[in-house]
Amino acid sequence: MSHYTFKAERRTKPIKNISRKALAGNFIPAVIYNKKINIPITIDRHDFEKVMPQLRSNTIFDIVLDDEKLAVFTRECAYDVKSHRIEHLDLYKLEDDSTVTIRIPIELKGLALGITKGGLIRKHSTTLKIKAKTEHIPEKIELDISDMDIDDVIFVRDLLKKDAFKNAPYKVLSSSAQVLVSVTLSSRAASGSAAQEKKADDTKKPDSEPPAAKSPAEKS
């Protein structure tokens, strides 16, 4: 599992009393919390933003506060609507042998069969909600889509049938009816298929209409 360490300082001022200029400066206001604690802190902005692209929603990292290491993960990240920079972090502190509810990123694996037939992959869900002890939190959930054909859909319930999930050291909380991924026919492939069908129908029609049968009056 990815691991990073950030130094922090205790914050004495409430966020509402911190100016926007200060918020956009060299630190990020944050709070470390769980059922037992609630500690306002600040984190060095440069250090955190430098590695942020590598951090997932379930990445556990250390906050060094008062010479003590606290294992946390990001529960919520608020951004400034104008600058799009981080405005505040909610960091959940893990206890030894504690059980937490967390969302794990879903990573697709393999090339779907339907892609070779002009299909498109639609990823309906990017995470899976689970409940697990700290030491059993997976870094990601791998989903093999190699056998998926056009119009195939994978639900959470399909994952739960696999041995890897039956024996997993965590509980899946996402709804069994939740759609994870599907393969649909692309509009270009669909229009091409329709054109081919029309062409096939046209080839079945005679080139010219047969002459109309004469009426009895015309025969005489």
Main attributes?
Ribosomal Protein L25, Chain P; 220 residues; 39% strand; single chain; elongated; 2 domains; 19% helix; 6-stranded mixed β-barrel; RNA Polymerase Alpha Subunit, Chain A, domain 2; alpha+beta; 4-stranded mixed beta sheet
Describe the structure.
The mean pLDDT is 83. The chain has a six-stranded mixed β-barrel. The protein has a four-stranded mixed β-sheet with strand order 10-7-9-12, with no helix packed on it. It is elongated. It has two domains: 5-94, Ribosomal Protein L25, Chain P (Beta Barrel); 101-189, Ribosomal protein L25, C-terminal domain (RNA Polymerase Alpha Subunit, Chain A, domain 2, Beta Complex), CATH 2.170.120.20. Helix content is 19%, strand content 39%. Strand 5 (68-79) and strand 6 form a beta hairpin. The N and C termini lie far apart (97 Å). By secondary structure, the chain is of the alpha+beta class. It is built from six helices and 13 strands.
